[in-house]
Amino acid sequence: MRGTARRISGTALATVVLSAGMAACTDGKGGSARSCTDGTYAWSDVRRSEELTELADPIRLEKRTASYSARLKPVGDTGVRPTVNGTPHGVRAADVIKALGKHLRVGEPLAGPSERDVPEEDLGHVFEAATGDLKGAYYSWAYRKTVEADFAYTCGSNASVKGHVRTWEETGTGFLPCSSSPSESMAGRQAARESCPEGSEAAKAS
Predict the structure, then answer these.
(1) How far apart are alpha carbons 193 and 202 in whole angstroms?
(2) Strand pairing of 161-177 and 134-154?
(3) CA-CA 20 to 30 A from 143: which of 50, 82, 131, 187?
(4) d(CA 112, CA 76)
(5) How far apart are the first and last CA of the chain?
(6) DSSP string covering 124-141, please?
(7) What is the sign of the dihedral through the CA atoms of 58, 67, 63 and 180?
(8) Residues 6+ positions from 204 with CB-CB distance below 8 Å
(9) Greatest CA separation for the chain
(10) CA triplet 63, 71, 81: central angle to 5 degrees?
């Protein structure tokens, strides 16, 4: 699972032209598109969302304990890969995602085509918490922070190629008591609503 310390700056909602910065381009004269890898991207409609991917059953600890293990179960679409629809001829999907990351000025690379938000071997994995003093109701969840964007790719005299990218900038897990205010994240609040007892602080504030 990718690290939880990722952050990106700026909303990047405006359409911006960005050089792909790859190999030389072959002009596409004659009507049909040819391989062209030195084009430019115009990005638009960049959207971010946080999605709940896994959720533990409601956790209730009757006695104080030093640690707890919660099995996270898949919720909705889990174990998915990044996708690029409309990949220009001669350009790899990974290159398109890399160009989007450059446009957004991300601190770490966006997830590439070979990655999964939750690896198959980790589906239903166990999340462990060890704080030394656990008692009461808790909730545990996993999430991904998705990034989507439309693009128009232009290279030489070829007609522009339009496409769509869906990837993510961060995945992670959470474990919190129901007696406190819920996580500020959308996925954490959804997890609190579904897992915490009715009337608990986290459930009321979600």
Answers:
(1) 8
(2) antiparallel
(3) 131
(4) 21
(5) 26
(6) TPEEEE--S-EEEEEEEE
(7) negative
(8) none
(9) 76
(10) 150
What is the DSSP code (8-state) at residue 25? B
Buried/exposed 103-113: b ≥16 CB within 10 Å, e otherwise: bbebeebbbbe
The one-character DSSP state at 120 is G
In the structure encoding, which two tokens stand for residue 22, read together? 């790859």
What counts of helices (H) and strands (E) characterise the chain?
Answer: 3, 8
Tell me the pTM.
0.73
Give the burial class of 198: count Cβ atoms within 10 A of its Cβ; 0-12 exposed, 13-18 middle, 19 or more buried.
Answer: exposed
Render each residue's pLDDT in the chain as its tens digit; 206 residues.
444 433 333 333 333 333 333 333 434 343 445 677 889 999 999 999 999 999 999 988 888 877 777 788 888 777 789 999 999 888 999 999 999 999 999 999 999 999 988 765 555 566 666 666 788 899 999 899 999 999 999 988 878 999 999 999 998 888 889 999 887 889 999 999 999 999 999 998 87
Q: Which residue has the tokens 């991300």?
A: 106
